[in-house]
Every structure is written in C-alpha cells, then in structure tokens.
Amino acid sequence: MADDNIKKSDTARDRKLGDEWADWNGETTDVTADTAGRVFAGLAIAAVIVIVGMAALFGWLIYPRLNEIGPVAGLVFNSLFFGLAAILLIWLLLFIWGSATRRPFLSGLVIVPKLVNLLLELTIRLGRLFGISRDRLANSFLKLHNLFLDTGPKLVGPEKMLMLIPRCLSRDSNIALRKMRDLHGFILAVAEGGSEARKKIAEIRPKLIIAIACERDLLTGFIDVNPHIPVIGFPNIRPCGPCKNTEVDLSSIEATVKRHLMQPA
Questions:
Q1: CB-based burial label for 30 (10 Å; 0-12, 13-18, 19+)
Q2: Which end of the chain has fewer CB atoms within 10 angstroms, the N or the C?
Q3: H or E element that contains 140
C-alpha cells in the first residue's frame, strides 16, 4: 500500500491533474474509456422503457380516483399518457434506427438538447447498477451524439466555430490543431477548466463548439452547454495517463470541421 502511494505521488508530480482526476491511482499506462456506441444505446432504450413503465404504473394506481372525479378526468389522463408514450416510442424508434444503421433519419427530432441531457443523466444512473463507469458511458454517448449531429450538419462560419482544447495535449497534437486552425480559420482556445471554458464561450458566443478533453470534463461541460449551443465532443487519447501528453484523432476532428464549416460563396 505504501509503495502504491509513493508511486501515485511521484507520477502526480509530473503533471497538473484536473479536479476530475482526484481519484487517479497513478497508473501511467494508457487510461482509456473507449466504448462502443451500442452500450449507451442499450441503456438509453432501457431507460425509456423504465420511464414509460413507471408512468403506466402510476396511471394504473390513480385511474380509479380519476373516475371518481368524473369520466372526463380519466379521458384527459389517458389522452395525455398515450400521446406522450407515442411520442417517446417514435423518438425511440428513430434513435434505434440511427444507432443501428449509423445512418440517422430525422436527426433533428432525435437531438432535442434538453431531452438528450435528461436521457444522459438517467442512463448514467442506470449504468451504475450495471457497473458501467461514467467515463465509458460518456465515451459511448459521444460517439452516437456526434453521429447524429453530423447528419444534416449545422453549417457555421469560421468565426462562429469554437474549438476548445485542453492544456495537456502533446506538443505534436497542439501544433497540428493550430495548423488546422490556420488552414480553416475557426477559433481555437485553450481551456484549463470548466469556468475558463464558460468564459471563452461567453466572450466568443459561438454557434458550434468542438471540444477536446477527457470524458469527465466533456460530460460536465456538455450537460452545462448543450441546451444552448451544439457541442461535438472528442475524448482525448491518454497514452501516458491523464493530464499529460494526451493525443487526439486528428483526421476525425478535421473531417468534422470541414463538415460543419460554411463554405464561402
């Protein structure tokens, strides 16, 4: 145990750990949460089924009381319940189709920011019951969310596209992203934490954010910003552990930049 504590202390000295990594065990091997999109999709489907089931149970329990009030009360309740259930079912079918085929249909109806945030939080809670970490669920969620956003992409001018990058990127990744910025003209900013990221967003007022960070930071920022501005998140790659010399999938990021960047007339 003492050796483990010494190891953690020594490895922590060579980097500035973010608050989200306070529980890091000091391992410097690749810390990855790479998870297939179907993991989040499966739990999201289960979460929707649980919501509908609980609503049905609630309705079954109170229906006799509603009938005592009058037949209209029961009719109104049934209409509301089956109407909302139908909307959720249609949404669920669109979500399943897009996730399974990787060719989303009517993605604008699926990516409703507040509904997405609610489903994300419910799925994270459900994931705990199955021993699936927030990091893995966030990684899985971002794969699907990026897929839906890339279908019928929102086009913005370079001055309205903000790329937020962490301070822990490797030198090569940092240089490559700055060259990408110079080539395409979008705004690039380094964010050392959530408060600084929010400050940058308030200053620039972008219409689209491309964020690069660990899953923990991305998840926190996504829930905070997504209801107001579309966010495309790319988890970093951590060959040396967290918060030091992290890397990125440059080809995927540049493809996303090109897909969402409004071309000059």
A1: exposed
A2: C
A3: helix 134-149
